[in-house]
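User: Fold this; tokens only.

Assistant: Input:
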Amino acid sequence: MTDNVWIRLLIIIIQGLVVFLITTTAFAYLTLFERRLLARLQNRVGPNRAGPDGFMQPLADAIKLFFKEDIVPDEADKVVYTVAPALAMIPAILLFAVIPVGAPLRLFGRSIPLQFTDVNVGVLFLLSVTSIGVYGITLGGWSSNNKYSMLGGIRSSAQLISYELALGLSVMVPVMLASSLSLSAIVDNQHGWWNIFKPTGLVAFGIFWLASTAEVVRAPFDLVEAEQELVGGYNTEYSSMKFALFFMAEYIKLIAVSAIGVTLFMGGWRGPGVDLLTNSGYPNIAALVSVGYFLLKLLLFLFVSVWIRATLPRFKYNQLMDIGWKRLLPISLATVGITAVGAVLLQNAGILGRLFG
């Protein structure tokens, strides 16, 4: 191998380790953020014993789960039962591979993009990896040989497949506005107006928000683990670190879809002053500022998600299916059609063209 190949391989390994460490750490402290925020919104006391203001609570939870007894049901399918948590966890981390989190850094004479890889079909990659996550939940419920777990697994397959349609159509709107499937190109296309401020982009953003909430089985769409009906749902028979992997997958996927929403509709890492700093010869400062913008938008997205969980009761299953098939799907189809017409026919027609393109 040449020196350049070794350097590139080393950069890939380092980037992979950084992505893994950041996502797992972010998951841990997202649980603390959610529990503290839920306590504040619902006027109760959150975790405040482990460390100052409960700051060490995620570490305490991790130690507790690690040392719990790992019980495997006698009648479970041992292989599938063991593999299912990994099938839920790995796709959640893979989603971060194509998400740009900031402007490129300049180190040692090299321009280093703050993105693991920029593939020209990044949006298709995200949709395909997102759809894999259903296998982990469904197989986990089936392999446990428990009727409540089985019902949770069946619900997950119906729910996730139903909402993937609306999710995929909503993502097509920023793709058409940018005329590209590359996430970097979509972010660059928002250097002026973000997609959320464009007529069809705002509607697509609302559809994306609802569909992505259902995709990560978050309240009020957490029917696959409805305690009053299914005891615990697909993960009823799981314990110790296998249960922790399912738990981690849910929160990491929540962070990932929030990052996708920021990238597709809220300008990604773009914000006031980033381009000015880059053009003025301060690319590294611009990179740090851009990462700050991205994290602020991501935190806003997560805050609203927790707020919704604290406010809305769980829907009934027939309501969940009605929203997906009778509401979101027709609206998303109409939004895609209007966007296509606006982008193709009105792109050179004055202000209407500028709004759509």
